[in-house]
Amino acid sequence: MDLARLPGLTSLPALDHPELLAPSVAEALRGWPSAAGVAVVEIDPDLADTAAMSEAYDVPMAAGANCVLVAGKREGEERIAACLVRADTRADVNHTVKRLLDVRKPSFMPMDRAVGESGMEYGGITPVGLPGGWRLLVDARVPEIDVAVIGSGVRRSKLLVPGPAFLDLPGAEVVDGLAG
């Protein structure tokens, strides 16, 4: 598989640059069959926000993907999901995610908890290397992206991932209408 690339960004093989990744991301990449095609690009950490990064590096929002963490409870049991959606859309938490998690009131995980439990930096949370037991919901439009720009677990870099590779992530569930 060829290394994912985007114009204007210097792509490096992610497997060869663990220093640009959160430890859990580097470990997960080593066991991911699609990792050979995944690149990492170093960015200004002040530009980790998707909109700022897209503007500064001339990357279309439709090429980005955001990973948001959602939690809710049902009968005292907490249910957590990572939702991967295109950056030019928003996860439908109040309907689709609520139904899929079968919870009364889903909400975005608070930043301090998301950072602490994922082991990743805010602005760099990614579906690669999340804790076991969390569901991974992938909007059906994400695998259609030629090269998706996603978090790397840290603010100073991003991963470039061929869209279809998300289907190979452990536990990935493709969901039509996850985002609107």
Keywords for this entry:
180 residues, alpha+beta, YbaK protein
CATH homologous superfamily classification: YbaK/aminoacyl-tRNA synthetase-associated domain
| CATH class membership | Alpha Beta
Shape: globular
| Gyration radius over CA | 15 Å
Order of helices and strands: EHEHEEHEHEEEE
Largest sheet, spatial ordering of strands: 5-3-4-6-9
- CATH architecture verdict: Alpha-Beta Complex
How much of the sequence lies in strands comes to 25-35%
Report, as a whole number of angstroms, the end-to-end distance: 31 Å
Amount of helix: 10-25%
CATH topology, anyone?
A: YbaK protein
By secondary-structure content and strand pairing, the structural class works out as alpha+beta
Q: What is the number of domains?
A: 1
Q: Could you explain how this protein is built, in words?
A:
This protein is an alpha+beta fold. It has a single domain (12-171), classed as YbaK/aminoacyl-tRNA synthetase-associated domain (YbaK protein, Alpha-Beta Complex). 18% of the residues lie in helices and 27% in strands. Strands 5-3-4-6-9 form a 5-stranded mixed beta sheet, covered by helices on one side. A hairpin with a 5-residue loop joins strand 7 (147-151) and strand 8.
What is this entry, summarized?
Residues 45-167 form the YbaK/aminoacyl-tRNA synthetase-associated domain. Helix content is 18%, strand content 27%.
SSE layout and pairing:
Blueprint: E1 12-13, H1 23-30, E2 39-42, H2 50-56, E3 65-74, E4 77-86, H3 93-101, E5 107-108, H4 111-118, E6 135-139, E7 147-151, E8 157-162, E9 172-175
